[in-house]
User: Which sequence fits this backbone?
């Protein structure tokens, strides 16, 4: 039995920079299919030795593209490929003709958004238990050294230059592009249609854009946060009382009752991230030719 064709378009991260939004806009195109599980991250996990979320082998990974095997573009929206040391080389080995795009967000906002996502959002574990971003920044060096998870590397993942250089080592400008989060949020339709055109698709198809996806929320009450994110009692009650098809919607509505916008990033915390990423920001500016002086402002 033949395997489905591999992906030919990858969004390579980093997390909390608009990967979900861009993927959502692009999958509206009738000739675009998306990986069965978003953020499969096969190429990163195969390299870093981390346990795969959805596929362990190349054959299993390809099965996630089976439903869209006949589409012109088969897309995976990943989050960890830019940060991964080995992903670019493995991608080149497995899918040498693939096209790739990364979306860069100002480091301080990306880091804080990731913290709020792991602290408050209904996401996969591990969950962030440190109650302030400042203290999470204090803890990052030890966490980074422990190599237990990538999720809490808030500052380190906000350094993009090495990742750009790794991809450029294996892929030319005709295959690897750099986008910016502020462009995706300020002119999402233009950016999406440019991607369609780059991929050889009809760029005039009707699409709906503009809605921020996977946006961070904050559950202010600690007991509610644990119940919503981790509580087995709540999960058991939901399973007994609500039919399977309605559970996701019910869980979302319950969570919305106790959530709100995260607190604004404190200027002193923004400054800490800027200082930690300053040299990298200047490298990214040189690599991309983009004026990033606003990334250096508090």
Assistant:
């Amino acid at each position: 039995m033949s395997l489905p064709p591999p992906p030919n378009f990858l969004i390579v991260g980093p997390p909390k920079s608009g990967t979900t939004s861009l993927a959502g806009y692009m999958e509206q195109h009738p000739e675009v299919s998306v990986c069965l599980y978003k953020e499969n991250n096969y190429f990163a996990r195969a390299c870093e030795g981390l346990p795969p979320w959805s596929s362990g082998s190349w054959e299993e990974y390809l099965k996630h593209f089976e439903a869209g095997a006949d589409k012109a573009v088969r897309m995976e929206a990943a989050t960890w490929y830019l940060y991964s040391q080995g992903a670019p080389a493995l991608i080149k080995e497995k899918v040498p003709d693939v096209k790739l795009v990364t979306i860069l967000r100002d480091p301080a906002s990306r880091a804080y958004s990731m913290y709020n996502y792991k602290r408050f959002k209904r996401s996969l574990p591990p969950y962030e238990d440190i109650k302030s971003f400042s203290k999470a920044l204090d803890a990052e060096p030890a966490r980074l050294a422990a190599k237990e998870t990538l999720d809490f590397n808030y500052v380190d993942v906000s350094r993009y230059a090495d990742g750009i250089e790794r991809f450029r080592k294996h892929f030319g400008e005709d295959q690897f592009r750099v986008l910016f989060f502020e462009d995706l949020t300020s002119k999402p339709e233009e950016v999406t249609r440019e991607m369609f055109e780059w991929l050889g698709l009809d760029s005039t198809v009707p699409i709906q854009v503009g809605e921020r996806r996977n946006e961070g929320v904050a559950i202010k009450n600690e007991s509610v946060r644990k119940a919503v994110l981790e509580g087995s009692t709540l999960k058991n009650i939901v399973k007994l009382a609500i039919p399977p098809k309605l559970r996701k919607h019910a869980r979302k509505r319950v969570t919305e009752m106790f959530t709100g916008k995260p607190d604004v990033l404190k200027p002193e915390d923004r400054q800490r991230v800027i200082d930690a990423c300053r040299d990298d920001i200047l490298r990214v500016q040189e690599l991309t030719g983009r004026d990033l002086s606003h990334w250096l402002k508090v």
The first helix runs from residue 19 to 26. The chain has a mean pLDDT of 87. The chain has two domains: 9-115+155-213+277-296, 218-260.
